[in-house]
Amino acid sequence: MMNIKQYIIDKSKELNIDMVGFTDCEPFEYLREYLAERKSLNINTEFEEDDIDRRLDPKLTFPECKSIITIGVSYNNDFDEKPDYKLKGIISKSSWGIDYHIVLRKRMESLIHEIKKVKDFNCQYYVDTGPLVDREIARKSGIGYYGKNCSIINEKYGSFIFLGYILTDLEIEELSIPVESKCGDCDLCIKACPTGALEGAFRVNPKKCISYLTQTRDNIPYDLREKMGNKIYGCDTCQKACPKNRSILKPNHEEFIPYDTKGYVDLEKLLYMSNKEFKEIYGKMSGSWRGKNILRRNAIIALANNKNKDNIKLLLPLLKDPSPMIKEYAAWAIEKLKR
């Protein structure tokens, strides 16, 4: 009789999937109090499922669910080539190269195709877009443990990993064993966070997190704008501070190497480019999903934080921009640079 679990592990390796794990479809009832507390404190983000039951119970998404296959793919590429323009904004590693949603979906579709060659089954699969707490699925599947910054840390690959999961009606006998946290008394990530979003071990306030701030459509408080530096999409600070990201296996996924952007945006060009240009230059990266204006807003914040009064002349035309948001941030940035 075929060992379906081992077959999936072997096929994952063939498909260049770095990590694979398995868990059951039992609800994460033990997280209910935590999610309810976040909701009561109004620190839920606009990207999360609002219904707590749907966040906790896989069967509310896929009623036939018997087991979950979780995959992890490392994006911890090194790339040192710098662009030649002067005013640079930083893109986090999570948005280097091709949009990871597309890359992981293709890997999962290939894995599903391979499994269906030997076993007929039904499934639903997600990369970031499902209602469930995907990091908890990853923890239960043995992909890694929670770091104090709430990232999942894999022992071989560290925390720069993308996660995807497949809800299935497969009977998988031997499930993965969750890994206990190995952070010990280290708190370097908490100390490194520029905004204090890490309010304690395993406690993150996403509304203060720079990665969230670069994506939200909500108004960004003035004091937090000043701590965003020149980050245009995402933030890697807490992960870079983590010792578990040193001396680890490096990935071989060429899709996540930023050949086009080199990991930066040209702030001046971004402010005035057409939608067509934006799509051509930045359309392939995951950060483009938020649209041009959110990234333009972040570029305005970066220019204000640059503290060079010469940036005022770049910002002045934006006072007549069609977007009320762009006008408001440009006016703020100009006033800040005048001081």
Question: What is the fold's blueprint, element by element?
Answer:
Elements: H1 4-14, E1 19-23, H2 32-40, H3 52-56, E2 67-74, E3 88-91, H4 100-116, E4 123-126, H5 134-140, E5 145-146, E6 152-153, E7 161-168, H6 188-192, E8 198-200, E9 203-204, H7 210-213, H8 222-225, E10 231-233, H9 237-241, E11 264-266, H10 267-272, H11 275-282, H12 292-305, H13 311-315, H14 324-338
Parallel strand pairs: 3-10
Antiparallel strand pairs: 1-2, 2-7, 3-11, 4-7, 5-6, 8-9
Helix pairs in contact: 12-14
Describe the fold and architecture.
- The protein is of the alpha+beta class.
- The protein has 14 helices and eleven strands.
- It folds into two domains: 4-76 and 96-168, no CATH class; 188-338, no CATH class.
- It is 34% helix and 13% strand.
- The longest helix is centred in the N-terminal third of the chain and has 17 residues, at 100-116.
Question: What brief labels describe this structure?
Answer:
about 35% helix, 2 domains, about 350 residues, alpha+beta, three-stranded mixed β-sheet
The profile of the biggest β sheet is:
4 strands, antiparallel
Look at the helices and sheets and give the structural class.
alpha+beta
Strand content: 5-15%
Strand order of the largest sheet: 1-2-7-4
Percent helix among the residues? Answer: 25-40%
Structural Rg:
21 Å
What's the mean pLDDT score? Answer: 96
Number of domains: 2
Tell me the number of helical segments per DSSP (H or I, 4 or more residues long): 14
- Count the strands? 11
* General shape: globular
Order of helices and strands: HEHHEEHEHEEEHEEHHEHEHHHHH
- End-to-end separation in angstroms reads 75 Å
List low-confidence stretches.
Answer: none
